[in-house]
Amino acid sequence: MKSACVLAVVLTFFILACQPTSTPAVTIIDNENIISLQTDERVPSALLSQAGITLNPNDRVLLNGLPTDLDEPITTYPITLQLRRAIPITIDSADGEKQIRSSAFTTGEVLQESSIWLHVGDETSPSLNSPIPNSPITIYQLPSQELTITTNGTTMSIESSAKTVGEALAEAGMPLIGLDYSLPAENELLPADGQIRLV
């Protein structure tokens, strides 16, 4: 009886040892396409090649949500590779329009990649922290200008990227109240000479 138990244990162990081990799964997300691979490969570039995926210039590959080196073997599990494809982006700045392709995550990243530096008071539309969608977009750089605001014999200088006189006055903490008015009027575009007078 004892030898039969030992034999049963040995046979069970032998059967389990001969079972194929499951190969770890790798998930690759390419926009709406989700690909699952059963592979022992651990180098991102080789995994993408196995999946039949070609990278374009400026595309990014993320490993579990973080940027990764395409030739560095992966040592963490589970493995999810996500492709962030570069999209056409137009940057409309004071220097004119510039066309680029980028896989940046935010407006600020796009401007940094393009070596476009903002000055104090400059703004962008969309704002610097706005996420970049997966479709073409135009980023506007709204350069600031020096404005001189005169009221009651006092002069104040500010840097502003406001479009109208009213917006500039609000930025300066001087909104028009009651019967106050400005020259030019608050709903007018900023004057070329940057002079605003409160009356």
Describe the structure.
By secondary structure, this protein is of the alpha+beta class. Helices cover 19% and strands 34% of the residues. The chain is built from four helices and 13 strands. The chain has helices spanning 2-18, 44-50, 107-113, 165-171, and strands at 25-30, 33-38, 60-63, 66-67, 79-84, 87-93, 96-102, 123-125, 137-142, 145-151, 154-160, 182-183, 195-198. The strands form three sheets. The protein has a five-stranded mixed beta sheet with strand order 2-1-5-3-4, with helices on one face. The protein has a four-stranded mixed beta sheet with strand order 7-6-9-8, with helices on one face. Strands 11-10-13-12 form a four-stranded mixed beta sheet, covered by helices on one side. A hairpin with a 2-residue loop joins strand 1 (25-30) and strand 2. It is rod-shaped, with a radius of gyration of 30 Å. The model has no long low-confidence stretch (mean pLDDT 84).
Order of helices and strands: HEEHEEEEEHEEEEHEE
Computed CA radius of gyration, to the nearest angstrom: 30 Å
Give the termini distance in whole angstroms: 110 Å
Strand adjacency order, main sheet: 2-1-5-3-4
User: How many strand segments?
Assistant: 13
What would you say about this model in short?
This protein is of the alpha+beta class.
Please describe the structure with a list of short key phrases separated by commas or semicolons.
alpha+beta; 199 residues; four-stranded mixed sheet; 4 helices; single chain; five-stranded mixed sheet; 34% strand
